[in-house]
Structure formats: structure tokens, C-alpha cells
Amino acid sequence: MYHVNQSFLPYVCPVFSDTSLAFIDIWSPPILVEPASARTPPTASDATDAVYSILFTFHDKVMHSAVIDDIASVIGWIYFTAWTLSFYPQVYSNWKRKSVVGLSFDFVLFNMIGFIAYCCFNVGLFWIPSVKAEYFKEHKDGVSPVQINDVFFAIHAVAITLVVIIQCFIYERGTQKISAWSKVLVGFIFLYVIITLTLTLSGEMIWLDFLYNFSYIKLVVTCLKYTPQAYLNFKRKSTLGWSIGNVLLDFIGGWLSIIQMFLLAYNGDDWDSIFGNVTKFGLGLVTIVFDSIFIFQHYVLYRGGHSGKYSYSFVLSQQHSKPS
Hints:
4 strands; disordered N terminus; about 325 residues; 12 helices; two-stranded antiparallel sheet; globular
């Protein structure tokens, strides 16, 4: 077995205001903590801060293999790279054609909503001490379901999707617009966030559960966002305007994401971590399914749809020929 020091303790240690000694676990040495009373009268806030200062000092975790851990880390950065680069073929295609015709605006809208939600979930679970404490209180001896590459991917995704939105405003878009049903759905999402935030602020819900709601939003939005694009391809009998480079890189990233989760779960004997981050697992699975559909559309169904009758120039001519 491989023994490695980590940075988090999965359960709350006792903190005493009148003593300077607290124990982490059987693997860790005693940690000296300055009594709160030595500085100011002890308060609930002092106790909480002291707990977090201990929680994130030491955590010893047993792994099957250091090699597997390194492989999982490398895979994480590879799929991070694949998913990160997957945005750029679409951006480049839009720029080269000076057009976003063929790109579903509903897809772009859901993309932004989903990545904002995913960013909130990842940042909260990775960087906010109180949220991490709540997670490991429920998953004792578990591994963190969010890695640093997940955080930077989500932040980057929001930024690059914003670039695509700007392209939708400045480039040729024909008659494309956001559908009414998409606007209604986004309205329901915002209402749901406001309701759950109110419950959290009132103490009816913990912050971890609030962030889980963001992860569920991302998962639902991901399931929905590909549908308008697949339908648009079907309606036009062409994938022109929808970058296949984006699809292929997305497909690779989806598989590697799931592989990493299984490696981490096996190596830490923590299979619950897969469902502890249902968003990451679900995203990988949904991505694989829809990318398979897009690959089939591009290379099988509409192979002749990249030129000729359903070419870019034809689509534009049809749109410009319609009465305004």
C-alpha cells in the first residue's frame, strides 16, 4: 500500500478553548493550536477558524499505487487540454467564415449557463474550506472529486464561451436567434437558483447542497444543449458551421474524464467519489453519447452536406432571398 500526505482531514477534530493540544488521527502527530482565550474571548467564529486551520493542515490517505495516482493526474491534464482546445476550432471557424450560420444559438446560451454553474461548483468545492469540510464530513476517508484541472477548465470555458457569444453579435448570423423555449427554461433556472440561495442563507440548506444544485443544473443543461444543434444539423442536412474539430476533441476529453474518475476511485478505495461528483461523471457520459451522434451526422448522414446544395453559400443565399 502507498501512504501519502494530503491536505485535508475528512472529519471534524475537537478544538478546546482552554488547551493547546488537538489530535488529527492515528497517523498524524499532535498539532499545537494557540488557545483562542490567549488572544480574545472564545467565540463560535474562533472555534470554526481553528477547526479549519487543523482540517487543512494534514490528511493521510492510503492508496494502492503511487504510479496509478500519477497516471490519473496525467490523464486529468490531457483531458483538460483536449476539452480546453475543443473550444477553439469553433471560434476559428466562425472567424474564418465571418459567420455563425450553422451554430445553434440555443446551444451557445446553454453552454454559457452550464459553464457558469460548473465553475461555481468546482471553485466552491475546491477552494472554499467550509464547503470542503462539509463534503468530507459526508465522505469520510474519501478523495476530492474536484481536481485543479477541473477548476481551470471551468473558468476557461466561461471565458471562451463569452468570445463565441461576441462572435454571434458581430458576424453574419442569418435568421438564427434564441428560441422562446430556451428563454423560458433559462428563466426557470434563475428562479431555481434564487430559491435555493434563499434557503441556504436562511439555514435550511448547507452550502455544499447549494453547490450540488449548480452541478445538477450543469448536468441538465448539458443534456439539453446538444439537442438544438443536432436538430439544426438534421434540419439543414449539413454540419457546416458546426466544427467537427470541436466534436472530436470533446469526445476524447469525455472518455479520459471518466477513465480518470475510475482510476482515482480504485486507487483510493473510494467508489463513492464517482457519484460524489455526479456532474463530472454525467458530463463525460453525455458528451460521449452526443459527440457520437455528431460524428455520425458529419461522416455518415451528411457527408455531402459540406458542399453543393447545402453549402455555406447556399444557406446564405436562401436566407437573403427570404422577404424581410
